[in-house]
Amino acid sequence: MEEKQLAQFSLADGTTFLVEVEEPESRGIERVSLGGKQVLKARQTFEEALDQIKPVASAVITKLRDLNQPADEVEVKFGLKLTADAGAVFASVGGEVSYEITLKWRSNKNQGK
């Protein structure tokens, strides 16, 4: 089991927060002191980390909206994992990344028109 560490992420406005992460594989991560405790300093802001995920999420939604009969509601769930060195990555369970997709159609969509 991987050892857990605290990593300090920052927001674009400079606000910082801590996230529990696995010990990074890269040893080039900067360590900073926070209240007398050593924590890892993330290489990216939180927003930059999430920017890595946006193209994937956008592609999934675009493809699901391009169905022959588009759904009235589309919901996509996936797990994210924050790391101090890589930012946001898709979390895996048992070595596999999984997505939960819910599509809903309303049967009375055209009634009353």
What this model shows, in words?
The protein has 113 residues and is α+β, with helices and mostly antiparallel strands. The chain contains two helices and eight strands. It has helices spanning 46-51, 54-65, and strands at 4-10, 16-22, 31-34, 37-41, 73-78, 80-83, 87-90, 99-104. Strand 6 (80-83) and strand 7 form a beta hairpin. It starts with a strand and ends in a 9-residue tail after the last strand. 10% of the residues are buried. The model has no long low-confidence stretch (mean pLDDT 83).
Give the total of beta strands.
8
Instruction: Tell me the distance between the termini.
Output: 59 Å
Strand content: 35-45%
* Mean of pLDDT: 83
The gyration radius over C-alpha positions equals: 19 Å
- In helices, the fraction of residues equals 10-25%
Q: What's the shape?
A: elongated
Q: Order of strands across the biggest sheet?
A: 2-1-4-3
The assigned structural class equals alpha+beta
Main sheet?
A: 4 strands, mixed
Secondary-structure element series: EEEEHHEEEE
Secondary structure tally, helices: 2
Low-confidence stretches: none
Helix and strand layout, with pairings?
Elements: E1 4-10, E2 16-22, E3 31-34, E4 37-41, H1 46-51, H2 54-65, E5 73-78, E6 80-83, E7 87-90, E8 99-104
Parallel strand pairs: 1-4
Antiparallel strand pairs: 1-2, 3-4, 5-8, 6-7
